[in-house]
Each structure stands twice: as C-alpha cells, then as structure tokens.
Amino acid sequence: SLKFGRAYGFRNIQSVILKLKREKCDLDLIEVMACPSGCNNGGGQLKIISTSSEMEVENRLVTNSDVKERIVAIERCFHEDLIERKPEDSPLVQKVYG
C-alpha cells in the first residue's frame, strides 16, 4: 500500500528533507508547498493585486474586503462537488501503482 504525506511551510519542509536524508521517511509521495496552509491564494489562484485598502477596477471602487470575499466564494464553489478520499483509494493511483 502506498503512503502519502504533505509538508506545508518551510519548517515542515525542512523536517521532511532531514528525514529523507536520514532515510527515516517511508512515504511514497510527498506534496510540498512553502506556504504554511498550502499556498492559499498562491500560484494559479486569484491574486489580491493591491496592498492599499481600496482600488479601482473598471471604474468601480473595489476594496480588499471585496477581493477576499470573492476568493472565499470561489473556494466554496470548488469544494462543493469535491469527492474526498484517501489518495491510495483513487482509481488513477491504483491503476498507476496497482
């Protein structure tokens, strides 16, 4: 059976790397992201494009609060139909490694 892990944040990544170097890590696959909570609003995500409290988009005043609400709404849509299961129960993983 396959063993999966994840390391979010530099401290956790360093810990996993040390375990790998010492051959104390028996995981088959490790998801690694530098952000502490897994790169929310990271690569491929909507960006908050201003550090000021408000900005103008298409002649409409948009605040950072508006942008954050939009990100939350999009994340909610993404997770609505998400099927949660262990990676080793995935038909694709079983086909590749089975």
What can you tell me about this protein's structure?
This protein has 98 residues and is an alpha+beta fold. The protein has three helices and four strands. The strands form two sheets. Strands 1-2 form a two-stranded parallel sheet. Strands 3-4 form a two-stranded antiparallel sheet. The mean pLDDT is 75.
Layout of strands and helices, then pairs:
Layout: E1 4-8, H1 10-21, E2 29-33, E3 54-57, E4 60-63, H2 64-80, H3 91-97
Parallel strand pairs: 1-2
Antiparallel strand pairs: 3-4
**Tally of separate helices:** 3
- Taken as a percent bin, the fraction of beta residues is 15-25%
Indicate the radius of gyration in whole angstroms: 19 Å
Order of helices and strands: EHEEEHH
Report helical residue fraction. 25-40%
Oligomer: single chain
**Distance between the amino and carboxyl termini:** 9 Å
Q: What is the average of the pLDDT values?
A: 75
Total number of β-strand segments?
Answer: 4
Shape: flat
* Unreliable parts: none
The main β sheet shows up as:
2 strands, parallel
Strand order of the largest sheet: 1-2
Derived structural class: alpha+beta
Give me a quick take on this structure:
Strands 1-2 form a two-stranded parallel ribbon.
Short key terms for the protein model shown above:
alpha+beta, two-stranded parallel ribbon, two-stranded antiparallel ribbon, 3 helices
